[in-house]
Queue: 4 jobs
Job 1
Amino acid sequence: MHETVTLQLGHCANYVATHFWNTQQSYFTYGEDTEPTPIDHDVHFRAGIGAGGIETYTPRALIYDLKGGFGTMKKVNALYDMDEGQTNKNRAAIWNDNIIVQKEPEIEVHPYITSLELGTEPPPLTTDTVRYWSDFNTLYYHPRSIVQLYQYAVNSTLSPFENYTDGRELFNSIDKEYDVLDRDIRYFAEECDQMQGIQIFTTTDDGWGGFASEYALALRDEYPKTELWTWSFERGEKVPMEKSIPRTVALANALSALMPLSSIYVPLVSPPINVPKFIEMDPTSQWHKSALLSTAMETVTLQTRMKDKALGAKLADLSATLNPSGFRNIGLVSMTLPTDSTPAGSHNGSMTTIDSAPKPHLVDLSWTGKSSEKRLFSIVKVSRGTMQVDSTPSISESSMLQVIPQRLVLSCSGSVFDAPFHTKLAYPILDSFPNIFAGRKGSLPVVSSLRTSSAATETLRRVRDTVLRYAPLDDREDLYNELSGFLSVYEEGWDSGSDSGEDD
């Protein structure tokens, strides 16, 4: 079935993943009169048995967060819940003395979640009312999916989880006591018929970067041939230098550890550096920022969960397209969104020329720089839905696939590994999704791309140069040399003006 297991490490990652899982759930269809979904749910969902013998279907996910990060979400939910009174009686039977239960003040359940449980019309969500990622979560998870780490607390000022080394030490201390792979991931991995890969959602400029690095190392030792995709979230807001430098040094350590272990490493900046006015996003809201990232991520990997295997692709296929040389595994994400007056354009040969303004909105979600993109090595393009002009479909499937490459290919030279994919399934805009796309309702046509290119050089160079000045002396030389090695494969032979199309 080519299953994928997802690891979610930290608060930011869980916001993005919650949008991802809500979208997956929306693809389920019910009733004989409903058009069958093109999505193979078994890729990301697992069948099981809940309380009372009921059949369950829950995500293949492991969700890690710090103390206070889960909000009102309980480890044991309605699918698996025993009567609480009976549970306390079972505990008391183990001990001779009476049990004294101490509880922290309970967080009030969000009205949106209450309405879902009651089957009533949910109230609209707002940035003021969404406090946790669980406030807009629409799924039940298996109890073994929920892993709370009590050693640190979310948004703590006394003991913040910001240091890369703290993350490494936290993982190793837990692994020493419990064996993390055996306790957590093996349960989900071993029930797969043919696991196509593991994807990690994690921040990399704080303690979770260290935690993810140690986790990925353990996974690579256990599953040496399995696809391991890392979706790396970096905080893009401007902060004082005393905060930005430690974040950059933490990122440098995470890059040094995670890039060699990952089949594909995808950096995503939250919020993105440049956001078009069409996107009405509150840059201080995790709910908003994560929605934008999830739209692009879910779209660009859509073909890995298609029922029709002749149309779809596995993670390994995408890796082979993006990194045929085996040396360039940094995937950069861009997304194109339509306007209500997107022009039809004219199709000329293998390229599409957009003749009139306004053009579709292009959003770079990964590393971007001031310099032009000199070399595009490979690209995976996914288009979904149809763009429209005055409510009339106007951009054909072949044209739609060219919207993003037009900006890139015109400035690049040499051969490009190009893998386009199109589906009529538009991106669903759910009631759990913020209203960030200029009032779009129901669904949204999207073009999303994942590419390897010379655009990675500017951020790699900036991180490397920061290491040279601010990293601890014991780590400075090794980090600098490793980052220089990563940088060289994206700039060598191309910054010097080579147009041969051959890699050195």
Job 2
Amino acid sequence: EFLRNPTEDVKREALASFIDRTGNAATRFATCMSCARELYVEDMQKVFVDELPKRYLLTPIVRHQAQVLVHSALLDPTSISCEEGRPQGPICRECLEDLQVGNVPVHSLVNGLWVGPVPDVLSILNLPERLLVALYFPAVYVLKLY
């Protein structure tokens, strides 16, 4: 039994499972309407905006004139679409669970993470120019612990 060659059925099942887990459908991304993070579609749920639990938690306390509110909630407008005349969009599990419990989602735009649209003058800059005008210089250090 040990080290016996797999049967053709086992090979077919393994190949089908591999294709299901690495195909286009499994690796598709979407943007969460609450936190604007790009995540796998399978980690999200499509929800109508007016059916969001405790939607009032997504209402900004201090409103900026450039913010676009949908049903009084600060959401990512690029991830929202209309179906049946009602706005809907994907929301990640983390944000949805926080809303169901009654907490403001940690990564939500309303939690101080909304930065607004990038001005046209800055959007055309290349990377060296962006680094020159940036207030902070982002740096990443990768350490190997073994």
Job 3
Amino acid sequence: MIVYASNATPMETFTYDNSLCSLSDWSKRHIRDVFEAPTDEQSLRAISETFSEDVDATVNGAPLTREGIQEVVLAMRRSSPRGLKVEWLQAVEASLDTNRGGSFGGVYVIRGIQKTLPGSSRPVEFERHKTVTVK
């Protein structure tokens, strides 16, 4: 961490944290930002900052593009009047070179999704369990 003192005001300082976060911390923060963003626009921005255009993703064994990820996330957000919430159940990191390489695997739950079941007039809350591998 570096602290810079400003010449403009004697007591004013600016703190910059120039250390790299771990792959686990990066992954958890970005997944949270995708699902828990306050607006759809911020969620879409988080998706573009998290997933490359040529992401190798699947849902139930079927390939999914970044645009497909956007559609799935927006659909979940629309079915969540109180917002989505991510809870990480497991996270394992295998570093290669102090935060700059390696892989990460994790399991998380997305809560707050509501669906109306056939024959019911009220929505029921569902949760989605996800696994992720980052290389």
Job 4
Amino acid sequence: MSSNRRVSYFYDAEVGNYHYGQGHPMKPHRVRMTHNLVVNYNLYHKMEVFRPHLVSPSAMTRFHSDDYINFLKVISPDNMQEYIRQLQRFNVGEDCPVFDGLFEFCQLYTSGSIGGAARLNQDKADIVINWAGGLHHAKKAEASGFCYVNDCVLAILELLKKHERVLYIDIDIHHGDGVEEAFYCTNRVMTCSFHKFGEYFPGTGDVSDIGHNEGKNYAINFPLNDGMDDEAYRSIFRPVIGKIMEVFNPGAVVLQCGADSLSGDRLGCFNLSVKGHADCVDFVRSFNIPMLVLGGGGYTLRNVPRCWTYETSVLVGEPVKDDLPFNDYFEYFGPDYRVHLPVSNMENLNSAAYLEKTKQQLLEVLRGVEPVPGTQIQTGQVDSQLNPRGMDTSTSEEPKDHAAELAS
């Protein structure tokens, strides 16, 4: 594990103060717990740590509709009764509740992702981490699946200012529907999601959903059944991602690391260990492509910090001891007080034959991707290949350095 990567890490201590409400599975507190472990393992010495500079609401409208962002700005538990129609229209209320400081929370997690993308664009880092981000279900004008503002999409739009092609990889147990939908008709962004499929939220992400028009063959979906374990996941993740790197040759990668694919998740049904989950991160890192690493799902409070802290150690190239250091939330991690826990004995309902068949289907789709010229080959006509038709990402706003003061 080489450790010569320049890693930046975005964190705002305020993020742990926001609360979706009693009994709600999404707990922003897990990001604070992760940060505390990162600090107590001394991993912050290996990174530049930043508190994100808050982006303006107008920056969010690069993807989201003005009406929707204006609604998120004004809605609060005190005035909800005045906005009954809009609550329904924007799908806010149940899975995506109104809570105190909702818009500020969205600003915080989104600013880390946009700021991280800008830092990669400025070549000030090779890897940027924002564990508060990765809220991949939000749509242009609709909240969905605990997500209000889609920081993944906004970060990709930022990266497209510099890079011709951006790859989005999603290892959350839920399909990355909001990101796929945003880029479904462009060949400048390839989305690749590995997820539970069949009577499971959000219900999208069939293997036959491969993109449309210019984006045909640029959406890759690997639908899975309950019980995916480390060995099975590795057997599909590495060949598919390896092939994508070969044919798509992205200039930057956004990796959404939802931890609800871990064994024992409150809402999940996979059986991955922390090491199995982190193997995906390590494999993507091995390509030496600028990389934005985001959080996402993860609903067993004691396991999410274990996973994201270990993945931070993988990204900086610094091994950590299995015994957890004493930290502010030490009692959460009992009775083992270790990073790595055994997985369950649940059955893997994904047969080797099913995984092989689906893998071959996807590799066939990827053969339909227009090959990108090798970087060592220069002809007089690079332009047509390197500037594929797609989404117009021009903006009147200059890229800003969103990295702000060091987190205390």
